[in-house]
Amino acid sequence: MKILLVSGSIRADSTNGALVRTAHQLRVEGVATTVCTGMADLPHFNPDDDRAPLPAAVEHVRRQIGAADAILFSTPEYAGSLPGSFKNLLDWSVGGGEIYQKPVGWVNISGAPTGARGAYETLAVVLGYVGAIIIPTACLHAPLARSEVGADGLITSVPVQQLVAQALDEMRRAVQAT
After folding, report:
1. C-alpha span between 169 and 29 (Å, rounded)
2. How far apart are CA 86 and CA 89, in angstroms?
3. Which of 92, 104, 120, 156 has the fewest CB atoms below 10 angstroms from its CB?
């Protein structure tokens, strides 16, 4: 089963990026992962441009989403909601229908007092709107301190690694059950 890993941040040293890189390194039986690339290259979404020929960056991201059996997200919260670049990726995914009926989950690693609640509440609304199938057992909160990311950009915390592996395994189970 193929799971696409999507970081909602384009920041080089983002802890959400570290989560995605770590998830890609984990070995979960029956799961192959791919890291989504190209979010920073997407043009600003304009419904008038959501037609052939699509911008190359949009085609690239849509192909990645379409090739996946499921998607695991990790995103920071900016100003109480999703980062603009990440929302832009989600907006571009609406017209192509690649996320429709696709199982999705997320790992929230925010150590903030609110736990990035606004971002994940918004993500749930957007994913519901595009017809994704949210797998509740694959939506986990694993607070992560920046000090728990090693020099190699991977998460060093074993409990967080275990929660990420759990989310991937829950997604595998959900896909197999359908």
Report:
1. 8
2. 5
3. 156
Per-residue b or e along 56-89, where b marks 16 or more CB atoms closer than 10 Å to that residue's CB: ebbebbbebbeebbbbbbbbbbbeebbbebbbbb
Sheet of 103-108, strand order: 32-35, 2-7, 70-74, 103-108, 133-141
Residue 83 tokens read as: 């980062």
Question: What are the C-alpha distances in Å from 61 to residues 15, 44, 91, 150?
Answer: 22, 14, 12, 28
Rg, C-alpha atoms of the chain? 15
Q: Helix or strand or coil: residue 108?
A: strand
With b meaning 16 or more CB within 10 Å and e meaning fewer, what string describes 118-128?
bbbebbbebbe
Q: Is the pTM of this model over 0.85?
A: yes
* Burial 14-44, CB ≥16 within 10 A → b, else e: bbbbbbbbbbeebebeebebeebebbeebee
Residue type present at position 95? G
